């Protein structure tokens, strides 16, 4: 079975097969023979090349997994190459220049410092979010015009809720979105 | 009023999380009855589960629950509590709350309201410290009514300056201003944050001492006029003015300096008629000069490291002092033994610029073994909400010297697992690999500086990245392998039911 494991910093191709209790894995030109034992609650003990490693894997749905090592947790997505090709094609078709910014964390909108239609410069404060008693100013990543405001002061927002949309000045083909 | 000790048989804890658990432990050891208040969000929290009694105090927002001073005092009377322990945060530094307790005949486990009021206002406390001969940082003491007034004051003492909330603490309402350009925006932000955090938007400013360390002295004072110092804690490692790592003793303090700082701290406490546990915070300049910053009129978050190097149980002494008992003679000249670190485990993601990370704790394994102490306020399966401070737990280690304490901290962190939410734990592994931290050469801005330069951003090693790839691939294969096998065994006639089940699995 061939898989692509998508990390935040890039994709890794994996060939993986199971032979009884053993897994045979190939990553790049590295080959591994791995023994895995599952402890309770998603915890695995991996025996890899003479070393023992404790990892935890939790399924987040949609083939996304949260993997915890001694370095902390990372979320990765596992896909087979055919599914991924379909997605790349979709991305090439879509995508306007408008940057849609969503709340990275749940919290409350303390104040909105700009109005719809207002021209802003890169680094300008746009709104203030409060979460866990700390105020965070959300700034414009680039110069442009506030195309749409989705929030008002006092409003509670969840992670992923849209905050505003920014029409970049001069660069209509910039990426599709971002999170703050 | 406290000539004869009055045993506090039942104590109401007006707090939550790890500090409520800490106070509960002391009460149980002494055989006293413990009661806690809880908000709707904390109905089944760890302190509630450990307490002898638990009483609802309101809905989740702290303004409607843990900050309801009158309701908490009324509750204490109703349930026959002899005393209230405020912990830290919430009402712990409210002189008004302490006075309400006194008026209701409920002992407030902390200093007299007058001492709290004097130290609670940074402006008033500065005046008092100057009068008592305690060194202070140059700066304005008066609340600044407008951006223009702030600009004039800043110009008079010279940049850089620090804007501070008069009622403040914990970094809230505080802003560093490097030049006149940034002053107006910082002034407005500081006032807004001060109002939101303390209900009081008075701010003042003072000169910034460059590259100082934050060194604080733990004191105990009884209700008979005796004050002792229990030595210092170094809390220089701060992120945006929030303490992150603390250690005792300070690598920058030798015995003569400890004596001088202790004497100043004892003078500070005596100047306001202080009683109970308290902490006098100083800025320590690289040349050994130190300046009074503020006094925290309560138990500190980082009190355990003092307990580790002195062997003194501070919460027990808080109770003894509140019962009117005098300080014991052995507290007069306490020996500092070994070295201790505390790291604060916040529900924040160090890989994403410390964004808050609420959610369910899917797995919790606390480290154990020699020299390790956990002060944890949560349990596995609990949901961390956005309503309160993100401090989940404190990991405290003790070693015979600083080197051994660092080794133990590293070892303990390697055992620790908190999953389901992100925590600051990876930052501490990165810090332990930092040469400046290892040598003990730090200052209050170092952490922010290094984080901004990307030096301490936790990184995943190539091995850990590879392990992540392997683990995800294994899990994926196991899931898909099982699904595929099941579909095949069922055969064609079951095709649609199998598809439906796959959809259902995806949806979970």
Textual characterization of the structure:
- The C terminus of chain A is likely disordered.
- Chain A is mainly beta and 180 residues long.
- Chain A starts with a strand and ends with a strand.
- Chain A has one helix and 17 strands.
- Chain B is α+β, with helices and mostly antiparallel strands and 508 residues long.
- Among the domains of chain B are: 100 residues, Rossmann fold, CATH 3.40.50.20; 70 residues, Dna Ligase, domain 1 (2-Layer Sandwich); 110 residues, 2-Layer Sandwich (D-amino Acid Aminotransferase, Chain A, domain 1); 46 residues, no CATH class.
- Chain B has an eight-stranded antiparallel β-sheet, with helices on both faces. A five-stranded parallel β-sheet of chain B has the order 3-2-1-4-5.
- In chain B, a hairpin with a 5-residue loop joins β15 and β16.
- Chain B is globular, with a radius of gyration of 25 Å.
- Chains A and B meet through β1, β2, β3, β4 and β5 of A and α8, β16, α13 and α16 of B.
Q: In which order are the strands of the major sheet of chain B placed?
A: 13-12-9-10-11-14-21-19
Gyration radius of chain A, rounded? 22 Å
pLDDT averaged residue by residue of chain A: 81
Number of strands of chain A: 17
**How large, in whole angstroms, is the Cα Rg of chain B?**
25 Å
Helix percentage of chain A: under 10%
Mean pLDDT of chain B: 91
What's this, in brief?
The complex is a heterodimer of chains A (180) and B (508). Chain A is mainly β.
Please describe the topology of this protein.
The complex is a heterodimer of chains A (180) and B (508).
Chain A: E1 2-7, E2 10-19, E3 22-27, E4 30-38, E5 43-48, E6 51-61, E7 64-69, E8 72-79, H1 81-93, E9 99-102, E10 107-112, E11 119-120, E12 125-131, E13 134-139, E14 144-149, E15 156-157, E16 162-168, E17 177-179
Parallel strand pairs in A: 9-17
Antiparallel strand pairs in A: 1-2, 1-8, 2-3, 3-4, 4-5, 5-6, 6-7, 7-8, 9-16, 10-12, 10-15, 11-14, 12-13, 14-16
Chain B: E1 10-13, H1 17-29, E2 33-39, H2 46-50, E3 53-58, H3 69-78, E4 83-85, H4 95-103, E5 107-108, H5 113-120, H6 122-132, H7 147-157, E6 161-165, E7 175-177, H8 183-198, E8 203-207, E9 213-221, E10 227-239, E11 242-248, H9 255-271, E12 276-284, E13 290-296, H10 303-310, H11 314-322, E14 339-346, E15 348-349, E16 355-356, E17 359-360, E18 363-365, E19 372-376, E20 383-384, E21 391-399, H12 402-415, E22 417-419, H13 425-432, H14 435-439, H15 446-452, H16 462-490, H17 495-507
Parallel strand pairs in B: 1-2, 1-4, 2-3, 4-5
Antiparallel strand pairs in B: 6-7, 6-8, 9-10, 9-12, 10-11, 11-14, 12-13, 14-21, 15-16, 17-20, 18-22, 19-21
Helix pairs in contact in B: 4-5, 7-8, 12-13
């Amino acid at each position: 079975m061939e898989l692509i494991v998508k990390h935040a910093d890039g994709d890794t191709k994996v060939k993986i097969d199971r032979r009884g209790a053993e897994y045979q894995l190939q990553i790049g030109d590295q080959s591994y023979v791995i023994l895995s034992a599952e402890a309770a609650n998603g915890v695995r003990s991996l025996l890899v090349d003479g070393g023992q490693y404790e990892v935890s894997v939790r399924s987040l749905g949609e083939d996304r997994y949260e993997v915890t090592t001694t370095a902390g947790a990372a979320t990765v997505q596992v896909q087979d190459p055919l599914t991924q090709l379909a997605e790349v094609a979709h991305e090439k078709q879509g995508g306007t220049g408008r940057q849609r910014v969503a709340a990275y964390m749940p919290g409350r909108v303390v104040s909105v410092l700009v109005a719809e239609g207002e021209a802003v410069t890169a680094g300008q404060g746009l709104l203030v979010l409060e979460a866990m008693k700390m105020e965070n100013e959300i700034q414009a990543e680039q110069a442009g015009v506030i195309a749409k405001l989705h929030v008002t002061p006092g409003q509670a927002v969840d992670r992923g809720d849209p905050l505003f949309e920014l029409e970049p000045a001069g660069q209509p083909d910039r990426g599709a979105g971002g999170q703050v | 009023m406290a000539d004869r000790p009055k045993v506090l048989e039942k104590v109401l804890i007006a707090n939550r999380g790890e500090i409520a658990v800490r106070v509960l432990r002391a009460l149980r050891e002494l055989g006293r009855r413990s009661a806690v208040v809880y908000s709707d969000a904390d109905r089944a929290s760890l302190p509630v589960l450990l307490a002898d009694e638990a009483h609802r105090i309101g809905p989740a927002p702290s303004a409607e629950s843990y900050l309801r001073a009158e309701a908490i005092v009324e509750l204490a009377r109703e349930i026959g509590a002899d005393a209230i322990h405020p912990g830290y945060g919430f009402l712990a530094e409210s002189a008004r709350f302490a006075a309400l307790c006194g008026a209701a005949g409920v002992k407030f486990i902390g200093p007299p309201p007058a001492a709290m009021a004097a130290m609670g206002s940074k402006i008033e406390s500065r005046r008092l410290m100057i009068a008592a001969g305690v060194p202070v940082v140059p700066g304005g003491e008066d609340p600044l009514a407008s951006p223009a007034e702030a600009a004039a004051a800043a110009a008079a003492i010279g940049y850089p300056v620090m804007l501070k909330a008069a009622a403040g603490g914990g970094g809230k309402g505080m802003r560093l201003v490097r030049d006149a350009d940034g002053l107006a925006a910082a002034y407005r932000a500081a006032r807004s944050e001060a109002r939101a955090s303390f209900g009081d938007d008075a701010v003042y400013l003072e000169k910034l001492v460059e590259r100082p360390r934050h060194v604080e002295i733990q004191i105990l004072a009884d209700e008979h006029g005796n004050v002792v110092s229990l030595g210092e804690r170094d809390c220089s490692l701060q992120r945006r003015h929030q303490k992150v790592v603390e250690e005792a003793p300070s690598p920058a303090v030798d015995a003569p300096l400890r004596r001088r700082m202790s004497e100043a701290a004892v003078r500070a406490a005596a100047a306001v008629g202080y009683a109970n546990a308290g902490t006098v915070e100083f800025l320590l300049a690289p040349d050994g000069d130190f300046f009074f910053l503020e006094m925290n009129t309560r138990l500190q978050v980082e009190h355990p490291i003092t307990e580790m190097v002195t062997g003194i149980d501070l919460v027990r002494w808080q109770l003894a002092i509140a019962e009117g008992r005098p300080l014991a003679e052995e507290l007069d000249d306490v020996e500092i033994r070994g070295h201790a670190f505390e790291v604060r485990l916040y529900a924040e993601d160090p890989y994403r610029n410390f964004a808050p990370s609420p959610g369910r704790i899917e797995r919790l394994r606390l480290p154990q073994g020699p020299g390790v102490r956990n002060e944890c306020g949560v349990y596995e399966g609990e949901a961390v909400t956005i309503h309160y401070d993100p401090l989940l737990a404190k990991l405290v280690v003790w070693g015979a010297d600083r080197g051994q304490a660092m080794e133990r901290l590293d070892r303990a962190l390697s055992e620790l697992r908190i999953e389901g939410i992100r925590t600051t734990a990876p930052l501490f592994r990165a810090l332990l690999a930092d040469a400046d931290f290892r040598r003990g050469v730090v200052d209050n801005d170092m952490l922010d500086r290094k984080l901004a330069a990307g030096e301490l951003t936790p990184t995943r090693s190539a091995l850990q990245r590879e392990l992540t790839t392997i683990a995800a691939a294994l899990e994926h294969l196991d899931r898909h392998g099982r699904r595929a096998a099941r579909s095949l065994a069922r055969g064609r006639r079951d095709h649609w039911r199998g598809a439906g089940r796959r959809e259902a699995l995806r949806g979970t």
